[in-house]
Amino acid sequence: MRRRWVATALLLAVATLGSDTPLMAAAETIETSARPISQFRIGSAERRFGNLEFVGGFSYRSSDRRLAGVSAFRMRDGGERFLAVTDAGLWFAGAIRRDGEGRPVGLGDTRLAPMLDANGRTYGRKSDADAEGLALAGGRAIVSFEGRHRIESFALPAGDALPDSERPRPVPMPLTRQELRSNGGIETIAVAPAASPLKGATVVVAERSIDENGNLYGAILERGAKGLFAVRRQLPWAVTDGAFLPDGDLVLLERRYEGFGRIGMRLRRIAGGDIRPGATVDGPVMLEADLGDEIDNMEGLDIWRNGAGQTVLSLVSDDNGSLFQRNLYLEFRLVSPD
Predict the structure, then answer these.
(1) Most buried by CB count within 10 Å: which residue of 68, 105, 135, 293?
(2) 49-90, pLDDT tens digit by residue?
(3) 3-class DSSP string for 243-274
(4) Is the N-terminal amide bond of 168 cis, ω within 30° of 0?
């Protein structure tokens, strides 16, 4: 009996280790390497794709195996720095290194830190830690999670410190957990510009969860126009992120996966004035790409202005911790039609 009691106690200790013991004491610096990408279309010097002009990009990796599954990110300090989340419940932050022409060539000052739950502990289960969407607003980081579907917000420390000691506050869910698919929940969470039709409201869009009409769930979380809307679903595409242009239009990043070697990415522009409770929205495709271009499992999108006042779209991929996939960072500049 004594032996059985000791064995049971050891099993309980191991079972609870993940939720009581941090993955790391605090933010830790990690080393990364990068390979610059000078051409978006493989084997072509073409740089203009509709109203988007390819600036540059890079693939990156780290010997630290915790750096995997980057699912959403937001640029900070005019494109100099970024904050990201991973689907293993980690914060990831760093700086974008650029060459003399301003093209992105790699990462610097890269750090990882665990996200904490409301009890100040790291997540013990993948279903609790699966962070998929990220927005920054009002001094807080707003994060959406899959698995155990929820939205939480974390206070952002001063400067570029990671919120690794911050406990989250719950954000009311616009959808019930029964309406969200286990691996297709809220992947897009974006904050509209204050001077736009949505007046700074936070908007969410589901990856693959659909309403009775077969369209993707969307919701406005506050600012007077609170309520559900729908995004026209166009199979085989799934929404993986979104961000607002300065004029208030919403750009959705979409991914297509139809088996090995049949992967695609596109950007769809939704008029901000169309997004309102009860509406079903759609819009033109700004860019579509496949494995003839420098893409992978594209998961993250942000839109920001550089020092020259130009609008820049940044995209990242999620390597899923696989040797057969890549972590990518790509930049496009929004240009006027010819």
Answers:
(1) 135
(2) 999 999 999 999 999 999 999 999 999 998 999 999 999 999
(3) EECCCCCEEEEEEEECCCCCEEEEEEEECHHH
(4) no
Domain of 229, in residue numbers = 2-334
Residue 314 clears pLDDT 70, i.e. is over it? yes
Mean pLDDT of 273-290: 96
Written as six digits, the tokens of 241 are 């992120």
Short-list 245, 145, 162, CA closest to 204: 145
Q: Mind giving me the DSSP string for 187-223?
A: EEEEE--SSSTTTT-EEEEEEEEE-TTSPEEEEE-ST
CA distances from 103 to 54, 159, 281, 336 (A): 10, 24, 34, 20
Residue 66, judged by CB atoms within 10 A of its CB (0-12, 13-18, 19+), counts as: middle
pLDDT digits (tens, 9 = 90+) for 21-55: 344 447 899 999 999 999 999 999 999 999 999 99
| Mean per-residue pLDDT of the chain | 88
d(CA 72, CA 231): 20
Torsion-angle region of 18 (φ positive above 0: left; ψ -120 to 50: alpha; else: beta): alpha
- CATH number where 57 lies: 2.115.10
- 184, two tokens: 């297709």
Q: Does the pLDDT at position 303 exceed 80?
A: yes
| Kind of pairing between the strands at 169-171 and 186-191 | unpaired
Residues 6+ apart with CB under 8 A from 199: 192, 223, 224
Residue pair 316/70 in contact (Cβ under 8 Å)? The answer is yes
The number of distinct structural domains making up the chain is: 1
Q: What digits encode the pLDDT tens for the residues 193-229?
A: 999 999 999 999 998 888 889 999 999 997 556 899 9
Helices then strands (H, E): number in the chain?
A: 2, 24
d(CA 188, CA 98): 28
